[in-house]
Amino acid sequence: MCLRHLLLCLLVGVIVIVNESEASWDEWWTYDGISGPAFWGLINPQWSLCSKGRRQSPINIEPDKLLFDRHLRPVLVDKHKVSGHLYNTGQFLVFRADREAKVRVNITGGPLAYHYQFEEIYIHYGMDNDHGSEHRINNYAFPAEIQVYGYNAELYHNMSEAQHKSQGLVAISLMVQLGETLNPELQIITSVFNKVIYRGDAAPVRHLSLKSLLPDTNGYMTYEGSTTHPGCWETAVWLILNKPIYVTARELYALRKLMQGPPTTPKAPLGNNSRPLQDLHYRTIRTNIDFRKRPDAKCPSMAQDMHYRANTWQDDGSLSHNVV
Ligand SMILES: *[C@@H]1O[C@H](CO)[C@@H](O)[C@H](O)[C@H]1NC(C)=O
Ligand SMILES: *[C@@H]1O[C@H](CO)[C@@H](O)[C@H](O)[C@H]1NC(C)=O
Ligand SMILES: *[C@@H]1O[C@H](CO)[C@@H](O)[C@H](O)[C@H]1NC(C)=O
């Protein structure tokens, strides 16, 4: 029979299983097979953007399509330390800041019109060094990507409300490269990898400084996209920092020991948990990096020697451009 019928049968079978065990959808999706990325939009109607959306993430950043925008400000991140827990969800590792914590870490500036409150860090990584990051730069994948999510605290009460609402999220992407020395702040997280080997495991992480975790750079690329996990809500302003942070082979080895299942049925390793690249669909990727300062620059720029001037209202009211 045709593939479509086979698929339907599989999905029906799957839905029955899920209902019987009363598992929540959140626990159930995966990165491969019939619950993998190609099916996220089909298995739950609330996740339809995963298959229909046209402003999806991750994307491949093509350097020759970047647009320099001189009005982009530096990103500001509060230096306060936060405590929380690192969880193995069976899909990835996620650090969640404690809800009760009094200190809030604000993320502001950059392209952001609102104050965002830091909430979660997701870790995506590959089972080998040639794969892992979700975003790619010029088709290059890093061994891992750390995504820092915050929610719009001016408009919404919490992450779960903000994630599917307009301008709800900011996501800062840190590319992780293999190096000789480990980022010291990252060590606070990597030191508990051995306590979150199985799905459902959680380990406390204390006094993490988000600001110190970020690489030492003001340069970034930004575009409007989605969460890279279901429901793929198109509510995220993405910031991809232009320098990686470093881990050693030892941490990557520890990461690759983590499993998707509980101790009784560990199933496959947790790694290789990256959503495939999504189409850009004519979105603009802006950067605050002025490539013109480099002699070999080929990057197009908004800062051309040309500007628009509004006509006086006595004229026909249209805009005319003037080369200066
Ligand atoms: C974070 O932003 C909020 C406004 O959304 C402000 O009230 C608060 O003081 C800021 N926190 C810090 C630590 O700057
Ligand atoms: C988030 O905020 C909404 C709206 O105030 C509320 O209904 C919901 O229970 C909150 N969710 C969590 C997880 O706190
Ligand atoms: C991880 O993904 C890469 C690229 O798709 C693949 O070559 C590799 O075999 C995968 N490894 C495992 C252990 O699944």
UniProtKB/TrEMBL annotation:
GO biological process, one term: one-carbon metabolic process
One Pfam family from the record: Carb_anhydrase
Domain spans labelled Alpha-carbonic anhydrase: 27-289
Gene3D superfamilies for the chain: Alpha carbonic anhydrase
Domain of life, source organism: Eukaryota
Coiled coil: none
Leader sequence segment: 1-23
Protein family: Belongs to the alpha-carbonic anhydrase family.
Protein name, per record: Carbonic anhydrase-related protein 10 isoform X2
